Amino acid sequence: SVSAESMAPGQEDYVKTVIPKTEEQRQRIESSIANNFLFKHLDEEQYKDVVDAMVEKRVSKGEEIIRQGGIGDYFYVVETGSFNVYVSKNGAPPERVMDYGPGGSFGELALMYNAPRAATVVATSDSVLWALDRVTFRSILMENTSRKRRMYESFLEEVTLLVSLEPYERHKIADALESLYFEDDELVIKQGDIGNSFYLIESGEARVSKFDEDGTEFELPGLRKGDYFGELALLTNKPRAVNIRAKGRLKVATLNKKAFVRLLGPVVDILKRNSDNYENITRNVQQ
Ligand code: 1OR
User: Fold this and answer.
1) What is the value of ipTM here, to two decimals?
2) Contact at 8 Å (CB) between 76 and 106?
């Protein structure tokens, strides 16, 4: 027989944690996780269970939240404040590899892989965190996160633009990606529009064209799997410079502007250098 408390399949041994909260605390949690990709796609009940289980943690400047090599107990979301991340490789002195601010989250790795903490995280100002226990994290947030990281892992490894990144930086990109499909000849980007997204081609091909001053449309070299587009308007804050259409069925992975800025910072010089070439390509085609 099925009791009223039984959980969905696969979650049978999970007892819900409920830490009482004021309405004001609930609202602070909501705004802290609103833009965090790990919390997207939760249904109403999962969302409530996560908020119920979170614990408020106030920390002082200089406090160590996580120590590399330690045991994973909690996953953390930043409400306010700032944090530095340090990694020590093979006993070398720790190096700063990353920082987090409001809306950021950390501490998922040890919980996902039952591994020691991969880094040390230290508050660089008085801060407020929301901590989620291991069991709730694994029961509700892990499935989606690891599925997405697995799904995009091999694809992202093949994208030339991203080869210089650390595996963990590609994980964070995977968290933020959303796949979209376009049918043959469908417009993905329209010249003159405002740019809000960055695109990577997962499969299929795209055609590129541009209207010149007298409104004649001319064709530019096309794009294939592993290529990217849509970065220029995000880098320059100018309107879309070209039209991009699906050539056959096209699958793209997209990042919104905020994620693009935050996650592709390490390759922004490569993006800029490559875009310097666009004028030459256009000139050659037009001749
Ligand atoms: P955790 O549970 O291992 C430390 O506890 C957390 O720091 C870790 O989960 C991540 O959430 C976070 N490599 C590993 N963990 C990192 C890194 C990182 N950055 C943040 N964390 N690297 C930095 C990549 C820019 C790779 C360094 C070689």
Assistant:
1) 0.96
2) yes
Is residue 261 one of the residues assigned to a domain?
A: yes
Phi, psi (rounded to 5 degrees) for 130: -115, 120
CB of 118 shorter than 6 A to ligand 1? yes
Does residue 6 lie within any of the structural domains?
A: no
Asked whether residue 226 falls in the same domain as residue 118, the answer is no
198 and 135 part of one domain: no
pLDDT given at position 51: 97
Report the alpha-carbon distance of residue 217 to residue 188 in Å, rounded. 16
Q: Is the CB of 168 under 6 A from ligand 1?
A: yes
The three-point CA angle 264-265-268 to 5° equals 85
Domain CATH code at residue 100: 2.60.120.10
Return the number of other C-beta atoms located less than 10 Å from residue 175's C-beta.
Answer: 20
pLDDT in tens, 1-22: 333 344 455 555 678 999 999 9
Instruction: Check pocket membership of 107 for ligand 1, CB cut-off 6 A.
Output: yes
For the whole model, what pTM was predicted?
Answer: 0.88
Any ligand 1 atom below 6 A from CB of 148: no
| Same domain flag for 129 and 198 | no
**Are residue 132 and residue 55 in the same domain, yes or no?**
yes
What is the number of domains present in the chain?
A: 2
Residue 208 lies in domain: 177-286
Which of the listed residues 88, 96, 168, 169 should we mutate to test ligand 1's pocket, taking the one with most ligand atoms within 8 A of CB?
168
- Measured CA distances, 68 to 71, 107, 204 (Å): 9, 10, 42
